[in-house]
Structures are given as structure tokens and as C-alpha cells.
TrEMBL record:
This is Peptidase M17. It comes from Paraferrimonas haliotis. Belongs to the peptidase M17 family. GO terms for molecular function: manganese ion binding; metalloaminopeptidase activity. InterPro entries: Leucine_aapep/pepB, Peptidase_M17_C. One of its GO terms (biological process) is proteolysis. Keywords: Aminopeptidase, Hydrolase, Manganese, Protease.
Length: 503
């Protein structure tokens, strides 16, 4: 099943019953609808009967309007000075679900914006939220569960870029499938195979490293995490590189390292007390990076060269698993003392970053990103928000600030953290036997600066020099919405990062 398709509608008459749409979904912060008199009369009449229409999503019989259905979804807290454009996303989610329950297959979304506030992208935010709400897990679709999804979604707007939205949603759809699927269906080899299949006709270059000898030699930290899984064929690691190369001159190069831990038992530092549940979502960084490449393959931006490398591993427990106190030399030649095997994602990323830096460090205007569900601390610090942690070169360029502004305008805000000298002190050598410590032996959520110092480790262990702008994006708190273990993958930070790349 393909991703939801958005259709831009500019003809006001599309709201009437003789159009191709079978329901109107109105998102509005007020019952005053000056631009839609036909709808205003119906809504205000209903409000005389039920005052709750301004407080909760309602379905009205609407003779003469498309499909005879009108869903009114109030935009709550639109005038709250601390709220943002996500109030339209919340309304869209409720409105589209109500339309679906009513039997609609082709609803037309209308966003009545609050003109007193800057909500330039409210229609786009609402449309993306509707698709997020309607996504169904890959396993369910493969099992033949009957889809209740929409055939298409209309957006009544002269401003929205439907082509951009469709490209973005195609990538987010792939990212949700990769992230939200169980640890056997999407173990490292299966993840790689599925991605190759889905990108087969994309024009992207896709390569997969599966040879054990090559992985052990070239990705030693990644292979240490995978040591207990090498004996199980279906759990063996993979490294996948996906490349978008534009036609013509390259003026800007972006390299992205994605953490793809398809299941995290914690290894020898075993996750106990129920902490292992939900760890099939520890591949959200690799999934988002893959989805971003899918979107780029559709949009085909000029001058922009993007390479994503995904480290796909299973952190298994077993007689051959790696343990704390081991010293393992990274791909960059840095001797890493293992402090905690449950801090495995940074080991995977470090080797991937080394190879990206080696291959593209001299490319035109190059920037590096890492995307990972990395720490519990970021959830403790920021709740459901992504954290961006930059090196000094990226900070001078204002990379995180730029992504923050663009992402927030499109309903995907993030927080910015700073690297400090203490973060590098934290991971410094413990003796002459090593060059860096991977982690302490306490949960990151109870460790001071628990999401900042891992970025310092990534800089140190990967050998990425300070002249390359590098931004780490920790999505542990934002990768899933709803149920913390089994909720819907969000494909974060695709929206803000794509907006940044296309600037």
C-alpha cells in the first residue's frame, strides 16, 4: 500500500456535493467563518443546538456539501501565547479520524487560520498530521488486515505545495514502516533487503555491506555490538549506504549517519524490570535517514549531494557478547574503553561517521549529521522533543538554529543543547590503555549531561575534525507518538531536516 496522496484544490466550488470529494473536514479556531458563508450558516445553526461544537470534534449532516458530511474540528488554544502551529495538527488528527469513522474515503481539508497569528504553514502541518494519524503498521498490511485508509486527501488552499508534501510523506511513510516494525520482521538483513526493494526505482545508489570479515575489519565498534548476533544469520549486522547525486555541479554535500539498532537487549548490561519493551523502535534514526533519502529522490534538488550511511545491528545477549571494561579500537584508530554495553548506539554511529568523514570530508561545503534514538536523558531533559547538539563549526553556521526555526514553522520543533568542556572531560581516557570512555555505568537519565556527553564521544571516537560542521540529533523522545512503546513512529526529524536541506 502506498503513502497517502495529497491533492491541492483551489476551486472554492469543490466544497459542494457535485465534486469529487465525499466529506468536508473543517479545522477552525472560531465559529466565525467569513470566507465560507455556506459552511458558516450550517455551523452556527448547529451551535445553537449543541454549544459543544466549539469544544469537540463533531460530524454534521450537510446537504449540498461534498458527501453530505461536515466534520468540524475545533483548533484548541489557538490564542495561547505559548502554543504553536501544532494546534492545527492536533485538530487535523481528530478531524480526519472522525471523517474516516463516518466512511469518508476522499475528504477535503479546509483550514480556517487565525489571521492574528503567524500560521503560514498551517495547511501543510494539518495535512502531514492527517497522514501521521492514518498510517497503519506494515505487519498489519502484510497480514491482509483490511485497510480503512483514505483514497486521497484534498487541501483547499492556494498556498500549499502538494508535490513537496507528497514527496515528504512518501519518505515519512517508508521511515514509519522501517521504524515501527517488529524486531524479527525488520532485523538488520531484513531491514536492508526491504530498503533496497523500496528504493529500487528511485534513482538512488544503494550499497550493502554484509560480509562478516569486512564488517569486523572496517567497522570494529559496530561489530563489537553485533558480536553475539553474528552466530544467528537473520540477526547479522549490515551497513547500508544510500546516495543521492544531482545532475550538474555539486555545491553542497550532506552526510548523515543513522543509528539502526533493530533490537536492544542492553547486551551484557541487560535491560531489566521491563525496560526492554519497545526496543524494536531503537532503529528510528536509520529509518528517518532512509526516509529522507526517499523524499530527496522524488524532489531531485539541484546542487545538493546527500549520502546516508546506516549502521544496522542487533545488540544481543549471549556467550560471545561484548562486555564493559573491554578496549576496542574504532575505525578511526581511537582506543575505546567500554563503560556500558547498553550505550551501544554511539559505538555504531562512531564507525559510520568515520567512514563518511574519510570518504567525503573534502567535499564542497560538507556538513555531517547523526540521527539516533540515543539516550534516556534527552527524554528526561526535554520530554517529547528532539535535541540538537552541535560542534563549534556547526554552531558558527547556526545549523541547529536554522533547523529549529524551519522545523517549528512546520510543526516539528526541537531543543538545542551545547557541547561543553565537561562533556569531553567525561569521556576522556581512564589510563594509558585507552583514549576514550564510551559511557559511565549508570542510566543516562540519572547522569548529569547525559545526552550532551555522548555527542562529545562521537566527535572523539569518529575522528571527525573540528573544521567539519557536525550536528547530532537525539530523537529518543520524539521518534514515537502515543504509546511510549508501541505508538506511531513519527519519522522525526525528517520535516525540519528536509526544510534545512532545501533552503
Amino acid at each position: 500500500m502506498s503513502s497517502l496522496q495529497y491533492h491541492q484544490v483551489t476551486d472554492h466550488d469543490a466544497i459542494f456535493s457535485d465534486s469529487q470529494w465525499d466529506a468536508i473536514v473543517l479545522l477552525t479556531p472560531t465559529l466565525t467563518l467569513e470566507n465560507y458563508p455556506e459552511i458558516s450558516q450550517l455551523v452556527n445553526h448547529a451551535a445553537h443546538v449543541d454549544a459543544g461544537i466549539s469544544q469537540q470534534t463533531s460530524l454534521l449532516l450537510a446537504p449540498g456539501l461534498a458527501g453530505g458530511r461536515l466534520v468540524v474540528a475545533p483548533v484548541a488554544k489557538a490564542d495561547d501565547p505559548y502554543s504553536d502551529v501544532r494546534v492545527y495538527a492536533n485538530a487535523a488528527e481528530q478531524g480526519i479520524k472522525r471523517a474516516l469513522a463516518a466512511g469518508a474515503k476522499a475528504p477535503l481539508l479546509i483550514v480556517n487560520k487565525d489571521e492574528q497569528r503567524d500560521n503560514e504553514f498551517a495547511e501543510s502541518v494539518a495535512a502531514l498530521a492527517a497522514a501521521q494519524a492514518l498510517w497503519q503498521p506494515l505487519e498489519g498490511r502484510e497480514a491482509g488486515v483490511k485497510s480503512a485508509n483514505l483514497d486521497r486527501l484534498g487541501l483547499l488552499s492556494e498556498e500549499v505545495d502538494a508535490d513537496l508534501l507528497n514527496a515528504l510523506e512518501a519518505g515519512r511513510y517508508l521511515a514509519r514502516d522501517l521504524c515501527g516494525t517488529d524486531p524479527e520482521r525488520m532485523a538488520p538483513p531484513a531491514f536492508a533487503d526491504y530498503l533496497v526493494q523500496q528504493l529500487a526505482d528511485s534513482g538512488l545508489s544503494v550499497s550493502v555491506i554484509s560480509d562478516e570479515a569486512t564488517l569486523r575489519a572496517d567497522y570494529p565498534l559496530l561489530s563489537a555490538v553485533s558480536r553475539a548476533s553474528f552466530a544467528v544469520a537473520r540477526h547479522c549486522p549490515r551497513v547500508v549506504r544510500v546516495e543521492y547525486r544531482p545532475q550538474g555541479e555539486i555545491t553542497r554535500t550532506i552526510v548523515i549517519a543513522g543509528k539502526g539498532v533493530t533490537y536492544d537487549t542492553g547486551g551484557a548490561d541487560l535491560k531489566v524490570g521491563g525496560a526492554m519493551v519497545g526496543m524494536s523502535r531503537d532503529k528510528g534514526g536509520a529509518a528517518a535517514a532512509a526516509g529522507l533519502m526517499k523524499s530527496l529522490s522524488i524532489l531531485k534538488p539541484q546542487g545538493l549531494h546527500v549520502i546516508a550511511e546506516l549502521g544496522l545491528v542487533r545488540n544481543s545477549i549471549g556467550s560471545d557478547c561484548f562486555v564493559p571494561d573491554e578496549i576496542i579500537t574504532s575505525a578511526a584508530g581511537v582506543r575505546v574503553r567500554i563503560g556500558n554495553t547498553d550505550a551501544e548506539g554511539r559505538l555504531v554511529l562512531a564507525d559510520v561517521m568515520t567512514h563518511l568523514h574519510k570518504d567525503y570530508g573534502d567535499a564542497p561545503n560538507v556538513e555531517m549529521f547523526s540521527i539516533a534514538t540515543l539516550t534516556g536523558h534527552v527524554v528526561r531533559a526535554y520530554g517529547g522533543y528532539t535535541a540538537a547538539v552541535e560542534n563549534q563549526a556547526a554552531r558558527k553556521l547556526g545549523v541547529a538554529n536554522d533547523i529549529q526555526l524551519r522545523g517549528e514553522a512546520l510543526g516539528e520543533p526541537l531543543e538545542i543543547s551545547r557541547l561543553r568542556p565537561e562533556d569531553f572531560d567525561f569521556i576522556s581516557a581512564t589510563s594509558s590503555a585507552d583514549d576514550a570512555l564510551s559511557a559511565n555505568n549508570a542510566p543516562s537519565s540519572v547522569t548529569a549531561r547525559g545526552h550532551q556527553f555522548p555527542a562529545a564521544f562521537l566527535v572523539k571516537a569518529s575522528g571527525v575534525n573540528e573544521s567539519m560542521p557536525y550536528t547530532h540529533l537525539d530523537i529518543a523522545g520524539s521518534a514515537v507518538s502515543g504509546n511510549p512503546h508501541y505508538g506511531t513512529p513519527t519519522a522525526t526529524p525528517m520535516v525540519g531536516l528536509l526544510a534545512y536541506l532545501l533552503k
